[in-house]
Structures are given as structure tokens and as C-alpha cells.
Amino acid sequence: MALPPGPSAPAVVSTLRFMRRPLDMLAQWQARYGDAFTVRFSGFGTGVYVVDPDAICDLFTGDQSDLRAGEANSFMEPILGASSVLVLDGPQHLRQRKLLLPPFQGSRVAAFREVIREVAEREIAGWRPGTELVLRERMRALTFEVICRAVFGVTQPERVERLRKRLVAVIDSSPIFVIAPPARADLGRFSPGGVFARRMRAADAVLLEEIERRRLEPDLEERTDVLSLLLCARDEQGEAMSDSELRDELFTMLGAGHETTATALAFAFELLLRNPAVLARLREELEVGEDDAYLDAVVKETLRLRPVIDAAERTLTVPRTVAGWELPAGVKVYPAIALVHLRGSVPARARVSPAAVRRGRSRVVLVAALRRWDPALHRRRARARRDRRGAARGDTAGRAATAARAARPGRRARDHVGAQARRASRGRAGPAGHSAGSRSAGSLSAIGPR
Q: Is there a single domain that holds both residue 144 and residue 276?
């Protein structure tokens, strides 16, 4: 069975390129190889990225028995644990999911809104005009405290700080400990593997301590935090979660909700500050307080423009046709979230009227204009703007210059060839518009006032 085309570089080279500039590399590979391409990564094996929305829909809505999400996520087991719902498949996965359902029912999740509000207001109250903030670090602090209160049920500042110190030390460890098992070898106190092992033991100890403390609380059954609800949960055989299972699910919720949410919030600030009209309208909508439709639209558009996860993962257990390719068993399939969000086939702009927003129709994914920086294109557009201004002033010389440029044949072709040559001279040749180091710029203007 032939795999889709893809980069021929050694796995370690592709891995380093991807780690350095993940979205740019994915965009380059898609531009060169199409909507299905194969990449070999160190520590992860061979994977096929799928960008076609129809193929992804078929993958997720068809027969799921030959797909293994847990196996694809197995690289996270050293941190999340063997009982994490993210690394399990089959009956074990189903059991854990059922046990996890009670804390995440609609009414219970709605109750977390007040916790989030209190933590956010306390965080922002400490901000002072004129001070410099690193948004991602502030959002990390905010989301960690929300998780401590809503998930762990811990509110005392000293206990929150103790959890933060030990758990964040693991989360911030180098990804090499996940990718390369030999790196985790404990070769002594000062070896990288030894340091990582001590961090893991310290994190496990503090989590197990909180589990035991909560189990002894007299009001356990009245508490609403996730840990208390999990301690009370029972499976179909009437069995409760073991301490090891509780530890793994707590670490999973921290890993899945802390860093990702903090990154998304930081990007939301970035986009709103770059789009003052959208920020002004969002403030107005929140002050009116009719509903959260516009806020919902802003959040969705932020996640589309700045996805925090580039792809989902599934491992094939039997051969399967995906995006027109017959893929063998054992291959990982990556539905490419980031590339689908930025597909050229998506309409360039979606306009939403204020009335439509108030009616809630803006809950569809809204699309903003995307621009890829191209120096030659920028120069042409700048000249065109100058020419239009000159024409508006009756500038005879400006009109003459415009006519002269129009008379020169092949200008666009020369610009294109020149750009390619410059990329090649810098050792960065690639498909037009996808040179290494380029970045996509996004705008929230699609959901701003019209």
C-alpha cells in the first residue's frame, strides 16, 4: 500500500523543523503535497495529515472500531498515567468516560462560571496602568487557579501555591521526556532523567495527598468540585476509582485545560487589541447583557485563527481508505485542525449584522480575512495606493507613471521569479507564499461593526 507523498527528509529533520515552526511547516507541506501528506516524526512514527474536510468528516462519523485515539496519544502516558482517559481505548476508555460524566453535566459546568468570574476579577484587580504584562504568564496563573478551585477543590492560597510549584514543574518539562523514552532514564540525581523522575514523584505525592485529604472530608457528598464528584462516582459494578486512576484523571484535566486555555486567552487579547472596533463592540454587547452570542463568536474566531492544537490523532488498527488513499494498519492519521481552519476554500470574509448577532445566528464559525506577507505584493499594493491618491489629486505625473508601469510586460512574473531567487539565495526556497519563517496574519474584522 502506497502512502501519500510527503517530505523525504529523515524523521529527525522533519521533527526539528516542525518543532521550530509547526504551522509554517504544515502549510508548506500541504502546498507542496496536497490535502493528504505523509510525515515521519522521531518518537511518533509515520503519520498522514488529512486536510480535506469531507475526508475528516468520513473519518469521525464512520466506523470507529478500527481507530485508536488512546494508542495515538500513548506518548503522553509517562505524564498523564496509564489510566488517563486520553490514552485508553475500548472498554477501559468507555468505563473512564462514564465515570467522568457526572462532573461535566451542563448544570455543574454552569456552576463553574462564578468560580471563573471570581478568579478573573481578582487577577485583573492586580493589573496597574503603565505596567508591562506577559499575557501568557498571567493567563497561566489564572487558569491554574481556576483548575485548583473547580477541579481539585483547593482554595487555600498556600495549598494552591504548593500544587502550582509541583505540577507546573512537570508540565514545563522538556518535551524530549515524552518523545524519547531513553531521556527518562534515571542515571543519577543530576541527570536529566533523574530530575524529571523527582519532579514526577513530587507531583504524584501532592496529588495523592489531596485525594486522601478530600476522602476524609465530612461534607464530601455535598461538595461540587470535580475531585469530590469523582470520589463519589461508581461504575456499573459499583466500583469506585482507585487512587491511581484519580491521580491520572486529575493530571489529565490539568494537562488538557491549563496550558491550552491560557494560550487561547492570550491570543484572544492579542487579536482584540489589534482590532479595536471588535473590542469596542464586544464591550458594548457585554454591557447590554442580552446574551453571549457576540462573545461566543469572538471566542470561536480566535480559536479558528489561533488554534492551540494543530491536529487530532488516530491510529489505524486495520487497513482503511482515507482521503482516497488505502492506508495500512499501524499508521497514525492526523486530521489537520489548523490547516482546515486556514483553508483557501473557506470564504474570505463573513459579515454578520448586529441584528443577526443578537438573534444568535453568529454562532456559526466566522471567517476573517487572511493575508500572507509577500514583499513583492506589498510593494505593488503600495504603488497602487500612491497612484490612486495621485489620480484623485489630478496628479498628471502619477497617471503617467501608472501608464508606464502598465506598459511594461511581465512585471508580475519578474516579481515572482525574483522572490523565488531571493528565497533560494537565503537557503529558504519553497513554494510561492510558503517560504520558511513566514507567518499567517489574521484579523477579527469579520465580526466587527459594518
A: yes
